[in-house]
Amino acid sequence: RRERQRFVDKNGRCNVQHGNLGGESSRYLSDLFTTLVDLKWRWNLLIFLLTYTVAWLVMASMWWGIAYMRGDLQHTHDDTYSPCVANVYNFPSAFLFFIETEATIGYGHRYITERCPEGIVLFLFQSLLGSVVDAFLIGCMFIKMSQPKKRAETLMFSRAAVISQRDGKLCLMFRVGNLRNSHMVSAQIRCKLIKSRQTPEGEFLPLDQCELDVGFGTGADQLFLVSPLTICHEINSESPFFCLSQRSLRSEQFEIVVILEGIVETTGMTCQARTSYTEDEVLWGHRFLPVMSLEDGFFHVDYSQFHATFEVPTPPYSVKE
């Protein structure tokens, strides 16, 4: 079967693009900090470099303008003249004075004198503006670097989901795992069934979302994720798969979105990992191979068998049948 468009990719990226916002696009500017954090790295770096470059050139031009208007540039070698900023006699020297002041380097060769009130005002303005720009841009870069998106890449989901019997009940199952030794605190898993349907009133819902019970009532959705776990959804009369059989599975079109959330133990930040399974990735009559074995004093996890399944006898009928 030709691969169809997914709502959520296997890597967790949502295939949704917002268009024709009209006047609502101004909302992005009202929350400029979040907009910058959400941008890709190349745009963040470009904005970072352009903002500092423009700010440096503008402020250096203002210092050069003060020296030009006061006539300091015409008294470069006059030891009896008191300039606004000592040893500023052209634009490069004004630029170097600004950099030394902004970065608090203080080489001591260029310095502002007390006979320059406009220079003192510009110095205070430069200090305030520099603090605001540094706090905004550096804070934005820090938040972007500390986002736990990369932590989600070390949370694994099985490539396929399986349907087989467990404890005498027909169940839909998939496997999750944590590749790191650091734990996910308060890890919780949820599942959404995305399927088109038509209401009795004739309304067509193209991407209707329905919750799949993975143990809300029993607490099985709260995970202690120190080793790979098999998440189980019992197919019963309240399940959306109540009428699903092995034969009808071939003609169905649905997508199961899995959302795993938890707190990263090392940073304390909330992390979310996502994946999805289409009807082609649901294997009827299969079960996952064991990956845990007892070694000398510890339990060993073999991730080479993480995605492996094997066939087991399973009735081809639906629970309803």
From TrEMBL:
Localization annotation:
Membrane
- Gene Ontology terms, MF aspect: G-protein activated inward rectifier potassium channel activity
Q: Which domain of life is it from?
A: Eukaryota
Stated membrane topology is: Multi-pass membrane protein
Q: Which reaction does it catalyse?
A: K(+)(in) = K(+)(out)
User: Site annotation (Role in the control of polyamine-mediated channel gating and in the blocking by intracellular magnesium): which residues?
Assistant: D134
A biological process term (GO) from this entry: potassium ion import across plasma membrane
Broad class of the protein's primary localization:
membrane
Instruction: Give the family, as the similarity comment puts it.
Output: Belongs to the inward rectifier-type potassium channel (TC 1.A.2.1) family. KCNJ3 subfamily.
- What is the name attached to this protein's record? G protein-activated inward rectifier potassium channel 1
Q: Which gene encodes it?
A: Kcnj3_0
